[in-house]
Amino acid sequence: MPERIDLFDSTYGHFTEQVLDSIRKETFGVDIGQNSWLTVDEYDRVLPWLRLTPEHHVLEVASGSGGPAVYLSNTAGCRVTGIDANERGVATASQMAIRSNQAHRVGFAVADANTRLPFEDHTFDAVLCIDSMNHFPDRLAVFKEWHRVLRPGHRAIFTDPVVITGPVTNDELAMRSSIGFFLFVPPGVNERLIEEAGLQLVREEDVTENAALVSGRWHEARRRHRGDLLKVEGEERYDGLQRFFAAVHRLTTERRLSRILYLVEKRAG
Ligand SMILES: C[S@@+](CC[C@H](N)C(=O)[O-])C[C@H]1O[C@@H](n2cnc3c(N)ncnc32)[C@H](O)[C@@H]1O
Hints:
Helix content is 44%, strand content 20%. By secondary structure, it is α/β, with parallel strands linked by helices. The chain has a 7-stranded mixed sheet, sandwiched between helices. The longest helix is centred in the C-terminal third of the chain and has 28 residues, at 226-253. The site of S-adenosylmethionine (SAM) has 23 residues, from helix 4.
């Protein structure tokens, strides 16, 4: 059974260091400051589905280092509020908003997505949640909160990066979830819970390819920068994270764990 390995604290705490900067560029091609399996091509392709205008206000749940939120406000011209449970993530994200001259439109706060969100009903014109759903134990309650804070007729996009679509051993599941709490579900569960929360599934897409591509590149880029990474992570964490990225790559390439993107809508009226 692998030990718990810290990914988020370490990454967010050292986000702007040269070595992590280089690794992100080599991994994502275009580095928008993400910490997930998201590439800018994928983001640009799906964002129009939210039908955003500059008057809109978006909630990003589990906004991490803030890159996707800042990119969104820059491209759509809308307001974005990001919440994340990780204090270092929120601090890094807030600095990124200031450095990108987006602080007037983008704000970040520490909040736990598993609890009642600190917002009034019908506050947001869209909800976004990238590669984080698997960290929330009560998915139905989370969907119900999104339903509460969304305006009627408006949409949410989320990805679930660990839908079980093939045989996976207990060691593989343990390795894949070595970075924190994980909830793995089979196909059909997200679809059922979306409806149960009062939301409507508009579109569903298999985007596993991106996770396979990004995890492979991430593993390789980290190997190339091993010397500098060891100074930041130490040997034990470096090795643990390399095993984690290798496991993600193997499981997604073989389509035993799939990354699925969902577009959902809150019914009008
Ligand atoms: C894979 S990262 C994705 C970050 C960001 N969405 C991105 O695409 O760069 C998952 C994020 O979920 C956050 N997270 C985990 N549990 C959470 C919770 N209960 N509430 C809010 N955020 C949480 C972590 O701190 C981390 O930033």
